[in-house]
Design a protein that fits this description.
Blueprint lengths: L2 E3 L1 E3 L2 E3 L6 E4 L6 E5 L6 H17 L3 H17 L1 H12 L3 H28 L6 E8 L6 E9 L4 E4 L7 H13 L3 E4 L5 H14 L7 E3 L16 E5 L2 H9 L1 H4 L4 E5 L4 E5 L8 H15 L9 E7 L3 H13 L3 E2 L14 H14 L4 E4 L6 E2 L12 E4 L7 H5 L6 E7 L2 H9 L4 E7 L3 H12 L2 E7 L18 E2 L10 E2 L9 E9 H4 L3
Helix pairs in contact: 2-4, 2-5, 3-4, 3-6, 4-5, 9-10
The structure holds NADP nicotinamide-adenine-dinucleotide phosphate (NAP).
NADP nicotinamide-adenine-dinucleotide phosphate (NAP) binds next to helix 7.
Amino acid sequence: MSERLSNYLGGRWQAGSGAGNPLFDPVLGTELARVDAGGLDLAGGFAFAREQGGAALRALGYRERAGLLAAAAKVLQANRGTYYEIATANSGTVAGDSAVDIDGGIFTLSTYARMGESLAESMGGRRTLLDGEAARLGKDPAFQSQHVLVPARGVALCINAFNFPGWGLWEKAAPALLSGVPVIVKPATATAWLTQRMVRDVVEAGVLPPGALSVVCGSPAGLLDQLQPFDLLSFTGSADTAAQLRAHAAVSRHSVRVNIEADSVNSALLLPGEAPDSEAFALLVEEVVREMTVKSGQKCTAIRRVFVPEALYDAAAEAIGARLAKVTVGNPRQAEVRMGALVSRAQLEAVRSGLARLRTAASVLHDGAGHALVDADPAVACCVGPTLLGTRDADGAALVHDTEVFGPVATVLPYRDSAHALALARRGQGSLVASLYGSDAAALGDAALALADSHGRVHVVSPEVAQSHTGHGNVMPQSIHGGPGRAGGGEELGGLRALGFYHRRSAIQAGAAVRERL
Ligand code: NAP
């Protein structure tokens, strides 16, 4: 009998009332655990979080809440080994890929602990965040308007995608808790185990006030119905689910503030003027291969489209294909395996059908089907080799600009000149990230600014940062994560900017004596 993952809601552990949905090992096919949210008192649980958790968090200052984050990070550090075991079993990831999720989550949490500490330092003895200077409202300077930022008095419902059960939890919960807002997290069913275990460890360590952090595993049914006007909804997942959430009455009628991180057809662009033996060319090749293979391409930020000058199309195809051919795929428990599995049979089918669609618009430059699986049964394991596609008709390949295959798949596309390349990148209709490769600082700077309006992040790689750049797909807590248009229109992280979502801005119009008390 596999473990039944309990829900933590209303300050207590609660089992669902149904048979539950199974979570599987995507390599071995065995059932690992079950989740079930049936029969939970959702209304009571949301009220408890709002009233008990929220009040307790708001009673603390930023410095004390930063201390809670640091204490939670310490608990997670102490249990890292267990998280790696869960990730291997439930996400089918090799250790390096598990680290992106687990250590990435702990790093993000610790970074917010440090930023909270500095914020408190900068506030001196003040408790309230001021937004700008006071502004005179008339001739008499006695009466002025001071904008303040105060913690939202609701609960943050954080709904996550399957690919980052660890990092996805903390990149949302850290800024919320630091702001003084309680969190209810709903992990994706397929990989809920890691999220549930991390919450369990932190709850059992008693480092957070009751109601500050809750977890509901299983069906999302009824969760949005609980949202009230001062609550917040932070969602990561597919564009289809995002559209349903936006249409829900909580958002459309009660103006629940919503942040959406959806899918994205990200690109990498080698600027003109680089020879096939240049460092910039080599850096592009390295990054494309890394992005295609880390977490088997199941990263919302992964490179899906690779733009190169027309004259370098063949060289790029050959260099990337040669590197991909060396990638060993299979059971992540084997030391020689570099790329593990997709998370589920459903994802395997989605990747296969997405690839079949893309193959109607592009040809295969490197075929993932040619990779024999190491210690994995192809009839059971959700493993696929990396596939590189390409087409010389970048303008006509509408499907390539529109289709996000959430797996180890990318397409090489040639461009005529810089203007053409930038126009093609924008055909992703708003992306999380684009990376630029070149050695001409002026051209790189111009291209970065030209893409900034349609990309949440532009990652510029030139030879002098070859060793120090943080990677196209790595989301650093200091930089914003999100993107306009198709990418969901959201914005997370970005250092202390993330706190804005969890605070309400209000203009206090008053005389000096009152304003001094803010
Ligand atoms: P999904 O099917 O949209 O599910 C995302 C989450 O929403 C899951 O927790 C899911 O729960 C829940 N959900 C499903 N229907 C819901 C509803 N009607 N109301 C409330 N919650 C609902 O997406 P996915 O397949 O897990 O994730 C893959 C997608 O996420 C990819 O397209 C990827 O690009 C995107 N993604 C984006 C980012 C980013 O930061 N922009 C990061 C990672 C992934 P169940 O699992 O229980 O159904």
